[in-house]
UniProtKB/TrEMBL annotation:
Residues 7-18 have a biased composition (Polar residues). InterPro entries: DUF3360. Keywords: Membrane, Transmembrane, Transmembrane helix. The chain crosses the membrane at residues 61-87, 99-116, 136-157, 178-194, 200-221, 228-249, 279-297, 334-353, 365-383, 390-408, 420-443, 464-484. This is Xanthine/uracil/vitamin C permease. The keyword Magnesium does not apply. Pfam families: DUF3360. Residues 1-22 are annotated as: Disordered. It comes from Shewanella sediminis (strain HAW-EB3).
Length: 491
């Protein structure tokens, strides 16, 4: 029987167990994987079980491994960025990362994305927010207040089906400029930090060797269309190059479990050593929470499009649901923050991208990802490797900031987009990305910059009222906490 006939004969009324056929029945492995995607039919908020409703294949190992490495690296970067601002120790970072791995692996990856709603992508880490953490701290922000506000805004978006609305309101040029700014600033920042680290240990040539190897490997992966391997492969090569050049490394995080009490994490002299947040902390983080959730929409939809590009056309039943993913990310954000975690949640790109290329649905790899996260947290030693400077910096470079830069440049397709992107870059550099996004979205939707035809098609609500409201909220919040140049804090 031909591949087309086998795929076309699937009865949508059959369960996965009834429709499943062994790989030996297919001429190629790709035909088998395509058929698996077609016969799965997930149901929203119903219990799903492995091998009854979905399979677990060897191909699920690659996205699970990439996701676990990405998770350790991303949460470490985020916790470390907070730790620097609040004067916390590396030991705090390690314990908080261990805690976040358990929160993500047990409570959300397996429970939500594998068992309850496999159409929701895993709740990962909001990489584009990492460069903003110094600004958040300088504005008087509190990690718990930030997490709760992001979660609340996210729930509001998901319940109102506002994800597609924000995508519509934030034009291609504005998004491109924002991503280019965040990518470029993060790229330069990570390279600078790697150079400073290699200089501090008296081996300045290490940073050159690591970055050169990363550029060559990443370029080759791009050439053969295997960039989904960038995080594990480039991180591995970076570690090997650094070790071969004589860089010291040792395992120090022993097996164990972190503190589980929120009172410990939000104590005055324990955990974050910040205490519980006050009203002023919530006010300070409003513009940053708005921006974080605003950046969710293009990110989430981009991951779904990545599935659509790699899955067969009949695989509608396994595609990611954007609004449900926002709901899970929002719940994960609020619960994780209250428990004491320092993560800011978003759709898990280091999982979805390799999973889509490997032609695997969300739940199978989610089970393996959850197990790997728990093992890494309990064993401890894998965290040391992922948090080692060469591995950490390279993983962020190829997993977050370089893709951000590339995606931003891809969005700038013509002169109108480049105009909007240029104004966005200018505005971001003038104040910060919160101000830049709000201002250029308003100007773009009103037709002052960017695509004038697009502006003419918008309703008054979309053209003026919503963008102006967002601008007033953002600028007002920035003014209250003293983040506008030359203007003292109004609070």
């Amino acid at each position: 029987m031909s591949e087309n006939r086998q795929e076309g004969s699937v009865n949508s009324e059959l369960s996965y167990q009834q429709a499943h056929k062994p790989a030996s029945d297919f001429e190629t492995r790709e035909a088998y994987l395509n058929n698996e995607l077609i016969i799965m039919r997930f149901r929203r908020w119903r219990l799903h079980l492995p091998f009854r409703d979905f399979g677990i294949e060897p191909e699920d190992l690659v996205p699970a491994l990439a996701a676990t490495i990405g998770k350790v690296v991303m949460v470490t970067a985020m916790a470390a960025a907070f730790a620097v601002q609040f004067g916390l120790t590396p030991e705090f970072v390690a314990e908080n990362v261990r805690y976040e791995l358990l929160i993500a692996g047990v409570l959300f990856v397996i429970l939500f994305s594998a068992l309850l709603n496999p159409n929701t992508n895993l709740a990962g880490t909001h990489g584009p927010m990492i460069p903003l953490i110094p600004l958040i701290a300088a504005a008087g922000g509190h990690p718990l207040a930030l997490g709760i506000m992001v979660g609340l805004f996210g729930l509001l978006l998901s319940f109102s089906k506002g994800g597609s609305k924000l995508v519509k309101l934030t034009g291609e040029g504005v998004r491109g400029g924002l991503l280019i700014y965040l990518g470029a600033v993060g790229l330069i920042g990570q390279i600078t930090k790697l150079e400073l680290w290699s200089g501090s240990i008296g081996q300045g040539a290490v940073s050159f060797g690591v970055i050169l190897a990363t550029i060559v490997i990443y370029a080759y992966l791009a050439k053969i269309h295997k960039r989904w391997l960038a995080i594990p492969l480039c991180s591995l090569i970076a570690g090997l190059v650094a070790f071969a050049m004589g860089t010291p490394f040792e395992f120090v995080t022993e097996p164990g479990l972190p503190h589980f009490s929120p009172s410990y994490w939000w104590g005055e002299s324990t955990g974050w050593q910040l205490g519980w947040p006050s009203i002023s902390h919530y006010v300070a983080v409003i513009p940053f929470a708005i921006l974080a959730v605003a950046m969710w929409s293009p990110d989430f939809l981009g991951h779904r499009v990545f599935q659509e590009l790699n899955y067969p056309k009949k695989a509608e039943g396994v595609l990611m649901n954007v609004d449900d993913t926002m709901t899970v990310c929002s719940i994960r954000q609020i619960v994780g923050s209250i428990l004491g975690g320092g993560n800011l949640a978003s759709s898990w790109g280091t999982y979805m991208i390799p999973a889509a290329i490997a032609k695997r649905p969300i739940p199978g790899g989610a089970v393996l990802t959850g197990i790997m996260c728990v093992l890494a947290a309990v064993i401890g030693y894998p965290m040391d490797l992922a948090m080692w400077e060469p591995v950490l910096r390279v993983a962020l470079l190829v997993g977050v900031f370089l893709p951000l830069l590339e995606a931003g440049m891809q969005m700038v397709r013509d002169t109108q987009d480049s105009q909007a992107a240029g104004i966005c870059l200018f505005s971001c550099a003038f104040v910060n990305p919160v101000f830049g996004w709000a201002l250029t979205m308003l100007l773009d939707n009103m037709g002052f910059i960017g695509d004038k035809t697009r502006s003419e098609k918008l309703s008054l609500m979309d053209k003026l009222i919503i963008p102006l409201t967002a601008f007033i909220i953002c600028v007002g919040s920035l003014a209250l906490v003293g983040q506008l140049p030359g203007i003292p804090a109004l609070l």
